[in-house]
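Quick question: what would this complex look like in 3D?
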Amino acid sequence: MMSSRDAILGKIRSVTAAGGDDSKRHEAVEDRLLNHPSGTIPARAQLKPKAQIELFCQQAEAVQTSVGHVKSYASVPKAVADYLREHNLPAEFRMGMDERLNDLSWDKAGALEVKSGPSDGNDLIGVSHAFGGIAETGTLLMLSGEDNPTTVNFLPETHIVVLKAGDIVGDYEALWSEVRTKFGAGEMPRTVNWVTGPSRSGDIQQTMLLGAHGPRSLHIIVVDG
Amino acid sequence: MAHKVALFVTCLVDLFRPTVGFATIKLLEDAGCDVVVPPAQTCCGQPAYNSGDREDTIAIAQQLIKTFEPYDYVVAPSGSCAAMIKKHYPGLFTDDEAWQARAQALSDKTFELVSFLSDVLKVENIDAKLDKNVTYHDSCSGLRELGISAQPRKLLASVEGLSLSEMKDSDVCCGFGGTFCVKYSDISNAIVSKKTDNIANSGADMLLAGDLGCLMNMAGKLKRQGSNIEVRHVAEVLADMTDGPAIAEAKK
Amino acid sequence: MTQIITTSNFKSNARTALDDKNLQKALTHVERGFIGKRRSAMDALPEFDQLRDNARDIKNHTLENLDLYLEAYEEKVTKSGGKVHWAADAEEARNQILKICRDVGAKTVTKGKSMIAEEIGINDFLEENKIEPIETDLGEYIIQLRGETPSHIIAPAVHVLKEQVEEDFRRVHTHLPEARNLEEPESLLDEARKVLREKFLNADVGITGANFLIAETGTSVIVTNEGNGDLTQILPKVHIVLASIEKITPTLEDVSQILRVLARSATGQDMSVYTTFSTGPRREGDPDGPEEYHVILLDNGRSNMIGSEFQDMLRCIRCGSCMNHCPVYHAVGGHAYGWVYPGPMGAVLTPSLMGIKDGGQLPNASTFCGRCEAVCPMRIPLPKMMRSWREREFEKHLNPSLQRWGLKAWAYFAKRPKLYHLAMSFAIPVLSKIGWKKGRIKSLPFAGGWTKYRDLPAPESRTFQQQWAQREALKQEAK
């Protein structure tokens, strides 16, 4: 008996390959997969780097994300501690192994307790480092792995994301090219998350409410230096 | 030389509202056209086309093409009938090159009345008077297939004494849909009821539109609800021919 | 909650829906909640229409080469450690899922929102096999509690009022204190979050749908606002992606083009909150993520659409914009359509998947107002395809014979102008006389469909053609 795979592909091919010589189709497909043409990039985010950072923050705030700025990584722990205190949150959080965060002196910024590794659902607060930011829509791009476990993006009630200003680009396509540089063409980490604001749902009477299953609040700390 | 314009009066205007036909002729003649009414016309074929009866649609289309192809322009006081010829006829003849060319040629010179006046004849002002507050419903085919929206509003604005109060959702279907309104009368009724609510809430004392099917549907519902709002085809107002009874009203 | 297909009863379903006061109230949220937001999002992006063209072209190119992209995709999934299962129909897909669940001894399965899961009726099947399926999208969770099916493809519980949700939560969440306040949507959302969090953490298998499958990288993409899809797929040992074959899209760039029109068309957001790209199972060194990654690639009738007049329908990205703008959907809601896919996209897709004999009502229940096509981000000619279904129905003599004969009789006259005008010159003055007094007619034999709800405007007097002929004759005489 023919496998479902062969049956499905065969049926499609009876139409798509009906023209006879199939080499043109193969070429077109290989070409597209290899060269991944970009299409239309909205002019909105084609700006100078400084303006791009401003647009990113503006777009993030438009989707109920809060944004803070620090001059250098050294100031991140204090910014986190301040945010937690201002929001009456406990001074402890979950974080992965990202060196840019792990090397910081968290203990000096008040009695911050850092729990390392993925979240098991018992953390109120998670801290991550983003791979980049997309100005067009105020979107964060997060990569899975030991450095920034995906569970930290979703399980805590509050998610604080550190983002280097220099990692903010205009559009999605610009970040894809950086993902390709890091992982190789056609390769992806297990999970790439685009995050545009805190979790929400409009499922009850089409009224948007924050804090469905993911974080209720999302705070971005942009490291300007 | 004056444009030789053939009037495709449409079956509903022919049968139910001849005034719209005469108003159309007046508007075209005032704009300098030489108007002809070919007698061998019936319907554009939409009832068959939208019921899936392609064979009869093609026969009706061929007959209409033959009747109207000798003229410079074909003008109809209906967005949906004009769109049928303009947007759908060529697609009926994908297997017949000769007929497709004829259908395309007719398509190129067929227009809905108000857009013809405005876009082709470049009419800017209309010599008409009406002391009424009107609201305008955008019939679907005219709006979405032919892009008719600004033209009637612009011409109405030049009618002396007339003011326009836009209704909410003027671009939403009235629920007519040709045979839909009888095949699915319950749903059609729900849709037209929303429409008449919006018409009433606009505060206007007259409803205008460019398609008689939609107008009969909305007028029929308004009158069933006991409304005093007058219903007319936009051509009647533009041609200053509003002395006779409105749609679904008795002679005074 | 056994799924009963009632598509062939569309007309009576619609009648019931029109009489349902709660439903009618809930449906006002569709018009209020989606249309204006889509418009603002679209207006804020000057390139929107260009992106729609690009999105259409990308999908057309993909469909013309679907076999090649499917093979490229499968190769990539396999390379990343995942497994692709090809399912010709719903039954095969159900069995593949059951086998994966049984192999890991699964007792509970969490589910992200997936229309394909509805299409294959996976919940009933898992329950029959003693595995508990748990819907995690808030809307899906609500309707699962109610024993209902979704009535909208992106807002499954759009037909439910908050008071009804409160009733359901009190009925099912009996472990929570009775005195709690559940009056506002906020408290309902909060309660669902708490209840479902436990389920997420304890599930053995997570099933999600996919908005896209990327051939370039072997990646599945899901788009959500709640984050439920993510918790569904990162916490359990096994992640099953359930997707139909037309979800294939060539590259990351192509997906990015289409994503720019998806959320804007669906909810009027520039981008949904979570867009997640998943490639294979947990990697070496990964501290979280599923240990197994399976993709069920479902055909279920779609390969028959390739090369047919319905191929364009396979471009659909399930944004729901067509139903959000449909006057018929606004009137009757999604359940009247009787199966998984409501609104204009359902009116085309349902007969493609279940056949025109059972699905034939749907493409007929349209005024052809064209608003669906006008807003479709993928520029799918929905009215044209509904008409194609009507043509097939007509060819097969499946429409009611009275309708058919009426149409044929009318066409007989319409094709013969002289006879037509002669007949009308008798009939119209008679009709005009009937309505002479009021200018309208309240009831008329054979016109009950019209006069049940509205008056029939009476013809003015004689036909235009009669009057015109007379005028022309007088002009000739005068000369």
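Answer marked as accepted. Chain B has 13 helices and eight strands.
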